[in-house]
Specification:
With about 375 residues, the chain is of the alpha+beta class. About 30% of the residues lie in helices and about 30% in strands. A hairpin with a 2-residue loop joins strand 1 and strand 2. The chain is elongated and about 75 Å long.
Length: about 375
């Protein structure tokens, strides 16, 4: 006998109120809407149970077999409905509990019902419903790149607890993908979680000469080429060119790291042409100290134009205006005069010399000249 959510009926006989929406059993009248929704690229990419292509027969099996079977197995499967019309807007799921009694929540929202907060409202309501039936812990797992779902988890009061490496197959057949784990306990207050690093206004920062935007997969080739340039490579920590798969992974993680408040990874672009010119990051974000470290690299053909000074200043100004950061620090090799000039022009001051900190080629070690820019 499979475990059941404590006190859960085998099939619901009444609706559950979820803010302005209703959770009810999926019905045969929903089949057409489910079929249309599951043709959406986002649903096809991120919902593991949705086959590609999705047909009306798939929707019929879901309504008549999958949803009722989930209840019989000890979980719960609801349709999200418009209370005024009864129209289907999505699905909400509590998987049958684990042997430890923990439940996992999932959802799918139709493209025509998005940007109303439906997923957050339903996730919060279904979580509360699970707690009322005796569940103590509910988990939400989301694809590494599905930042929309990660935002839902945070808004519904879930805490990010870690990354499960290669925990699920990729829907595109390209191997396996990491999953981000969020959890919420019945005793948690359910307060919405906010990132220490807010979104960039309009998605980027620009002074008309350079534009900073989160690192993306289309940036990978240019980023990889820049990081392999000899004079960039020698200043890298460690002084090794990244493997291409490492650069791809960095780009795939950018949104997750940003939402987690861990780091900001940005491409530096020529504002006039849109070309990728370099890379800049806020890393080692210490929220307790309100301190972060800045690092950067610039492709050789863009040097001598003041791009990186502008980029460093833009990122620092944004950080001090939009976060509680008080200190932004940087580290450079003692002989890296061009980087010293960038930092000086961007308002940094020399602070300390740390001996033998930086790894060099062939096991050598180099001193690190550290810099700081303070709020105000």
């Amino acid at each position: 006998m499979l475990p059941r959510l404590p006190g859960l009926p085998r099939y619901p006989r009444e609706t559950v109120q979820a803010g302005p929406y209703l959770l009810r059993p999926p019905a045969k009248d929903d089949i057409d809407a489910i079929t249309r929704a599951c043709a959406d690229p986002e649903i096809a990419a991120y919902v593991p149970s949705v086959p590609v292509p999705y047909t009306a027969d798939d929707a019929r099996v879901f309504v008549t077999e999958t949803a009722p079977g989930t209840w019989e197995a000890g979980g719960a499967y609801f349709a999200i409905a418009d209370p005024a019309t009864g129209d289907w807007l999505g699905n909400a799921l509590l998987k049958p509990p684990s042997a430890a009694g923990n439940a996992e929540i999932g959802y799918m929202v139709a493209p025509w019902a998005r940007r109303r907060g439906v997923a957050t409202i339903v996730t919060r309501a279904l979580s509360e419903w699970a707690y009322q039936h005796g569940t103590h812990r509910v988990e939400l797992l989301t694809d590494l790149e599905n930042t929309a779902s990660q935002r839902v988890a945070m808004a519904a009061g879930y805490r990010r607890e870690g990354v499960l490496r290669e925990a699920a197959p990729r829907k595109d057949g390209g191997g396996r993908t990491d999953l981000v784990l969020y959890g919420r306990l019945a005793t948690d207050p359910g307060t919405p979680q906010r990132s220490y690093l807010p979104d960039l206004p309009g998605g980027s920062l620009s002074d008309g000469v350079v534009r900073l935007a989160p690192l993306t997969l289309p940036d990978v080739d240019a980023y990889q080429a820049m990081m392999s340039e000899p004079d960039v490579l020698v200043r890298s920590v460690p002084p090794l060119a990244p493997l291409r798969e490492e650069s791809v992974y960095r780009a795939r993680c950018t949104g997750m790291w940003w939402l987690a408040g861990e780091r900001a990874e940005l491409g530096v672009h020529d504002a006039a042409t849109g070309e990728f010119a370099g890379h800049i990051q806020l890393m080692n974000v210490n929220q307790a100290l309100d301190q972060a470290m800045i690092g950067y690299s610039l492709a050789g053909r863009f040097r001598g134009r003041g791009f990186m000074t502008r980029a460093v200043d833009l990122l620092c100004e944004w950080a001090f205006a939009r976060t509680s950061l008080h200190r932004i620090v940087a580290g450079t090799a003692t002989d890296n005069t061009p980087s010293h000039r960038v930092l000086e022009r961007a308002g940094f001051e020399r602070e300390a010399l740390v001996r033998a900190l930086l790894p060099g080629a062939d096991g050598t070690r180099h001193d690190d000249l550290q810099w700081v820019r303070l709020r105000g």
